[in-house]
């Protein structure tokens, strides 16, 4: 059984990783839960019979921990990923986003090259069983898509979190004034790195992985929390939009249209184990659908990490693809944020 | 009273089918002189054709699927007559007439999948027209990306007295039948409208998701063209405005 150390013990760990790892108890066991808040670390660790710590070094120095899951706030992801790799861990599962800057990604690339460690980014839709099944059938949709559309319309997270686990009390968040242009830029950046990031690796694959050559042509912030970003990659037009608001119905879609085929994917919401997406390719020959599987991307990412640790390295995306997708995410976040800033009257 | 209609050769099968579904209202006739309604093909310079018919004393005109033309010429035409009916493939869908107008929408997105032979410019016009029919008017485009096979727009429109952010995506493909999907967002509601292939009577659908659940708005199995033809006989005053059409052509002109 593979020992796991969790870095950060907030809502994502409580609602996603703990229940998921509980279903995979023959593969993984949680050894240590580390959080900078000692009460949180102890409470979460007690739920799974693990050790609690407030010190990252306790996880890095524990040889019984082979896999480190980094679930801390995004600004710490890169630094902690590098530290875990350099500590000799076999694998790092880093929650999205992998990094917030190109410099951070260079550091991670160096650490990967030097250590040969395994890196998985917890972008759940990359691992969604429906996406995994439909990928080999994408054919001409990859690189020849004329338009790609990622649309996420979701209720706020608390609607799902409370149905996934008993959450520990959190500090109430104060909402900054969204009429402040700087706040809107910060929100847009956070929305890309926190929400759009779920599907940007899929979008990136569909448009042929142009990386930073993709041109960000428009960007706007939507209230109360959302974004619309236009991207042009050669002759392919991409619309990436997201909106969180207090309604009940999740509408989470990815669509790619080529001359002769349409890919349409409908994803289930985050946090709750609501099964996989459904993915359909429609063309002249009719429609082909996959999905409606009982597991979602969260469980699949851990299962495939287990397979990779057993030697099946192609069970997870290559480091090159992981880094390229993360570069694309940072590029979209940076350029969209800058573009929004340019639209602000002086 | 049954109206005899004259149609150009290329629209004969379409018009015959439409007239057959409205047998008490229309019959396809020859020659044009005997016709009570003259149908024009909107794929060419229909404004010039309409002006010619007006000059020839033919005042009851219906333009089938009007495409992009010079907006100034449409203005001129509008100044001459108010009896021209525009039969539009998506904007005429009956579902658009039953949409709630009292919801404070802040954003709307529109996705249009067009047939491969449909020029992007025409597909965009049809999309702008369906947005207007849904109540999103006075579109001002801020960013437009146009390729040979698609378009991506962002901008602002007006819904009731409110400014609304707009984004629109167009793609030409043979994979699926042409259709539009509009989705409008307010702080508490999401309205999704689908406008099906106008060649069929598949119904447009409208679904409103709000705090209290989800409501499917009334559905009508009538194509946009049949509805327009029916109303042209029953209540011609409900015909789409030529001046609004000219305004939408100017929006299109600002992009392409």
Give a structural overview.
The complex is a heterodimer of chains A (346) and B (256). Chain A folds into two domains: 2-122, NAD(P)-binding Rossmann-like Domain (Rossmann fold); 127-342, Dihydrodipicolinate Reductase, domain 2. The longest helix of chain A is centred in the C-terminal third of the chain and has 24 residues, at 319-342. In chain A, helix 2 (38-48) links the parallel strand 2 and strand 3. The model of chain A has no long low-confidence stretch (mean pLDDT 94). In chain A, the strands form two sheets. In chain A, strands 8-9-10-7-11-12-13-14 form an eight-stranded mixed β-sheet. A six-stranded parallel β-sheet of chain A has the order 3-2-1-4-5-6, with helices on both faces. Chain A has 13 helices and 14 strands. With 346 residues, chain A is an alpha/beta fold. Chain B has 256 residues and is α/β, with parallel strands linked by helices. Chain B has two domains: 3-87 and 225-255, Rossmann fold; 94-222, Dihydrodipicolinate Reductase, domain 2. Chain B contains six helices and 13 strands. Chain B has helices spanning 12-21, 46-55, 71-80, 120-133, 224-234, 242-255, and strands spanning 3-6, 26-28, 37-41, 61-64, 84-87, 107-114, 136-146, 150-159, 162-172, 179-185, 190-195, 205-210, 213-216. The longest helix of chain B is centred in the middle third of the chain and has 14 residues, at 120-133. The termini of chain B are far apart. The chains are: A alpha/beta (346), B alpha/beta (256). The interface between A and B is large, with 37 and 38 residues. Chain A: One of its GO terms (molecular function) is nucleotide binding. Chain A: This is Gfo/Idh/MocA family oxidoreductase. Chain A: Residues 4-122 form the Gfo/Idh/MocA-like oxidoreductase N-terminal domain. Chain A: It comes from Kineosporia babensis.
């Amino acid at each position: 059984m593979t020992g796991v150390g969790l870095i950060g013990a907030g809502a994502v760990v409580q609602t996603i990783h703990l229940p998921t790892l509980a279903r995979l108890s023959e593969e993984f066991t949680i050894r240590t839960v580390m959080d900078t808040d000692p009460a949180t670390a102890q409470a979460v660790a007690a739920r799974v019979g693990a050790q609690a710590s407030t010190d990252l070094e306790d996880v890095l120095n524990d040889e019984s921990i082979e896999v480190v899951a980094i679930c801390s706030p995004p600004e710490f992801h890169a630094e902690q990923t590098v530290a875990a790799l350099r500590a000799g861990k076999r694998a790092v599962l880093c929650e999205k986003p992998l990094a917030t800057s190109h410099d951070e990604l260079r550091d991670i690339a160096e650490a990967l090259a030097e250590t040969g460690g395994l890196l998985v980014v917890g972008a759940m839709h990359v691992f969604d069983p429906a996406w995994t099944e439909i990928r080999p059938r994408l054919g001409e949709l990859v690189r020849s898509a004329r338009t790609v559309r990622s649309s996420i319309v979701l209720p706020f997270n608390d609607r799902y979190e409370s149905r996934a686990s008993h959450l520990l009390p959190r500090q109430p968040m104060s909402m900054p004034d969204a009429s402040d242009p700087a706040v809107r830029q910060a929100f847009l950046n956070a929305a890309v790195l926190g929400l759009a990031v779920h599907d940007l690796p899929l979008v990136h694959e569909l448009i042929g992985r142009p990386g930073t050559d993709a041109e960000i042509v428009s960007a706007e912030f939507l209230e109360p929390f959302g974004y619309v970003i236009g991207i042009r990659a050669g002759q392919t037009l991409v619309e990436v939009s997201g909106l969180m608001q207090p309604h009940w119905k999740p509408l989470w879609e990815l669509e790619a249209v080529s001359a002769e085929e349409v890919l349409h994917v409908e994803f289930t919401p985050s946090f709750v184990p609501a099964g996989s997406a459904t993915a359909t390719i429609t063309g002249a020959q009719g429609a082909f659908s996959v999905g409606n599987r009982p597991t979602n991307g969260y469980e699949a990412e851990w299962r495939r990490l287990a397979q990779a640790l057993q030697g099946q390295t192609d069970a997870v995306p290559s480091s090159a693809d992981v880094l390229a997708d993360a570069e694309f995410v940072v590029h979209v976040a940076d350029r969209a944020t800058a573009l929004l800033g340019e639209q602000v009257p002086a | 009273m049954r109206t005899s209609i004259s149609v150009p050769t290329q629209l004969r099968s379409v018009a015959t089918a439409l007239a057959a579904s409205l047998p008490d209202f229309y019959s396809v006739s020859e020659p044009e002189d005997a016709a009570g309604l003259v149908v024009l093909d909107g794929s060419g310079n229909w404004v010039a054709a309409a002006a010619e018919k007006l000059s020839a004393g033919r005042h009851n005109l219906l333009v089938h699927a009007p495409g992009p033309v010079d907006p100034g010429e449409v203005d001129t035409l509008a100044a001459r007559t108010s009896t021209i009916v525009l039969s539009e493939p998506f904007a005429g869908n009956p579902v658009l007439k039953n949409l709630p107008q009292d919801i404070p929408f802040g954003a709307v997105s529109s996705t249009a999948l067009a047939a491969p032979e449909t020029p992007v410019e025409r597909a965009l016009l049809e999309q702008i027209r369906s947005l207007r029919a849904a109540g999103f008017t006075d579109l001002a485009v801020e960013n437009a990306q146009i390729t040979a096979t698609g378009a991506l727009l962002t901008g602002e429109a007006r819904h009731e007295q409110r400014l609304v952010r707009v984004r629109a995506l167009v793609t030409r493909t043979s994979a699926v039948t042409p259709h539009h999907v509009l989705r409008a967002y307010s702080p508490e509601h999401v309205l999704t409208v689908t406008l099906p292939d106008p060649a069929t009577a598949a119904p447009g659908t409208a679904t409103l998701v709000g705090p209290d659940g989800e409501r499917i708005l009334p559905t009508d199995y009538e194509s946009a063209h049949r509805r327009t033809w029916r109303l042209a006989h029953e209540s011609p005053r409900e015909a789409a405005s030529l001046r609004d059409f000219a305004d939408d052509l100017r929006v299109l002109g600002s992009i392409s």
